[in-house]
Inverse folding.
């Protein structure tokens, strides 16, 4: 049985970090390593391809030269004698520079060209990591995922063809692992059936790891990053915030929506669906327990496990006493948000139906207000709708936890804590999943609201450690 270990960009950016990676991999059981590009590389590659598309070949090539030099330098520091890796880096750099020049000549960067250029980041980092491991006596080799992850041709955001990918993952990787070798696979990238390089979307190296874990039926999928798991609150807001030992997939999904950026849960779904636990661990503190995410409801006696928040939002209210009982009214509101391509974070309508509140990014609120006024011009003229108002800046705060389901009195404790703090609640929403109570406050109250709720539920045993 194998273990998939994925390392993010900050774990690969310095010689010190790479040393830590080598120590972790050495301790791994039949490890398959998946790597991101080193921190900052993908952004730089995308910027370079855009610059090239303007025809500015000098700036774009200079950026590529700089990226190549930084990988060469890193390789020299971690594995000076590795001629194979140095040659591979050189070839990758030459190929990518040629791509950048073609883009500059054409003054056009198609998503397909951009993917080819962006793939440099993961391909180069796989070479550097494999060389680091070899320098530590581990029999490692770089394996481009273009030979494993089969995707459609939606360049920039390609979707994997799972079954074919799983078959290839086993065919390519298992023989290596069986012989005691350590494959270092590029995250983020794949290829169409015709062999054209694609990418799976920004931040998708976690996705690659989960896909390979599922295909290999791995024991575990370990995601190494630069924090010790998902925290019970943003530590910049709550000093007592603590890492959560266990999260259900559903809880992770609720949390990620608001600010908890450690992991995009959808990215690890292939592993969760295959029954493989996903653990978030810290490259820089590898003995910390981290957070284990599984498909099961993680009942550890806690009620509200985590409190998260997101500021910079606006609250739009469409109000009027005559709105009630008009079918299709909400449809008009949401047709408008869809037409304006505004993402709605929270919705609330009281059962009197006298108002609908929606929470949107603050910088879209005025535009959406104008669009709603156009859409509802007739209703406004007949006073079925009295007004469309905007309040901002506001924040949404969410209390999340599986333990809230079916537990009476949770809302009372949430709002009691806010009341004692003198925080005014503007709107409230709870989905019927009962894993999340969300509410809006003025942005000035965001920090106090998060602290009050975290404090209220801090006594419950959310600190129970994973095994
Ligand atoms: N390097 C890619 C990105 O920055 C993928 C990843 O890091 O997960 O989007
Ligand atoms: Mg990344």
């Amino acid at each position: 049985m194998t273990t998939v270990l994925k390392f993010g960009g900050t774990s690969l950016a310095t010689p010190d970090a790479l040393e830590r990676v080598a120590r972790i991999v050495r301790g791994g059981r039949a490890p398959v390593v998946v790597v991101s590009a080193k921190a900052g590389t993908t952004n730089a590659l995308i910027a370079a391809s855009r610059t090239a598309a303007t025809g500015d070949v000098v700036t774009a090539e200079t950026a590529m030269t700089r990226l190549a030099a930084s990988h060469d330098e890193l390789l020299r520091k971690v594995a000076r004698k590795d001629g194979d890796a140095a040659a591979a880096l050189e070839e990758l750099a030459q190929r990518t520079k040629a791509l950048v020049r073609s883009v500059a000549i054409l003054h056009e960067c198609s998503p397909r060209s951009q993917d080819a250029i962006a793939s440099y980041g993961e391909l180069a980092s796989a070479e550097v990591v494999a060389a680091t491991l070899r320098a530590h006596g581990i029999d490692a080799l770089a394996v481009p995922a273009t030979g494993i992850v089969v995707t459609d041709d939606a360049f920039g955001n390609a979707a994997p063809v799972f079954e074919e990918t799983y078959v290839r993952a086993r065919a390519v990787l298992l023989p290596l692992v069986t012989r005691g070798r350590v494959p270092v696979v590029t995250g983020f990238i794949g290829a169409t059936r015709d062999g054209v390089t694609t990418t799976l979307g920004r931040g998708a190296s976690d996705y690659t790891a989960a896909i390979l874990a599922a295909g290999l039926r791995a024991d575990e999928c370990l995601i190494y990053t630069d924090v010790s798991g998902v925290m019970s609150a943003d530590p910049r807001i709550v000093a007592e915030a603590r890492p959560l030992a266990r999260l259900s997939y559903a809880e992770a999904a609720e949390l990620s929506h608001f600010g908890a950026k450690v992991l995009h849960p959808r990215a690890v779904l292939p592993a969760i669906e295959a029954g493989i636990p996903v653990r978030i661990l810290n490259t820089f503190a590898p003995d910390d327990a981290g957070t284990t995410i599984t498909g099961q409801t993680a009942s550890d006696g806690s009620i509200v496990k985590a409190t998260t928040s997101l500021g910079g939002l606006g609250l739009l209210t469409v109000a009027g006493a005559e709105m009630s009982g008009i079918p299709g009214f909400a449809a008009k509101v949401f047709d408008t948000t869809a037409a304006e391509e505004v993402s709605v974070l929270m919705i609330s309508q009281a059962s009197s139906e006298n108002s609908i509140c929606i929470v949107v990014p603050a910088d879209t609120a005025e535009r959406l207000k104008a669009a709603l006024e156009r859409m509802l011009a007739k209703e406004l003229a007949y006073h079925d709708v009295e007004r469309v108002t905007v309040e901002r800046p506001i924040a949404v705060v969410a209390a999340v936890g599986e333990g809230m389901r079916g537990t009476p009195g949770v809302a009372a404790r949430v709002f009691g804590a806010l009341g004692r703090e003198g925080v005014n609640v503007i709107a409230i929403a709870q989905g019927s999943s009962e894993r999340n109570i969300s509410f809006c406050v003025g942005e000035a109250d965001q920090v106090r609201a998060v602290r009050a709720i975290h404090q209220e539920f801090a006594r419950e045993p959310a600190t129970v450690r994973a095994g």
Summary: The longest helix spans residues 111-135.
